[in-house]
Design goal:
Helix content is 47%, strand content 22%. The chain is an alpha+beta fold. It has a two-stranded antiparallel ribbon. The chain is elongated, with a radius of gyration of 27 Å. The two termini are 52 Å apart. The model has no long low-confidence stretch (mean pLDDT 84).
Length: 90
């Protein structure tokens, strides 16, 4: 779930070598920086995460468990087959 994106934003700093007029308040100068900008609809998701109101997605957790279990089972079976081949060659 994407909560936002990295964007270039303009901030006002007290020191700079670049001094355009009228962009920032008096005594400050513009500079660019990277910032993580939230999608407006992500506010409720973040608030639920902070408050602990998020419920786990059991279907997704089941898929992760199935993938991990089958990967371990597959590597075990592969090891057994390779071991059998080495025993035959020996």
């Amino acid at each position: 779930m994407a909560l936002g994106s990295i964007e270039k934003i303009i901030v006002c700093q007290s020191t700079s070598t670049y001094q355009p007029a009228g962009v920032c308040p008096a005594g400050t100068y513009p500079a660019t920086m990277d910032a993580f900008v939230l999608i407006p609809s992500a506010g409720t998701d973040l608030q639920n995460l902070i408050n602990g109101n998020n419920t786990p997605d059991y279907a997704l957790l089941g898929q992760f468990f199935s993938f991990g279990f089958l990967a371990v089972l597959g590597f075990w079976a592969l090891g057994r087959k390779i071991g059998a081949i080495f025993r035959v060659l020996r």
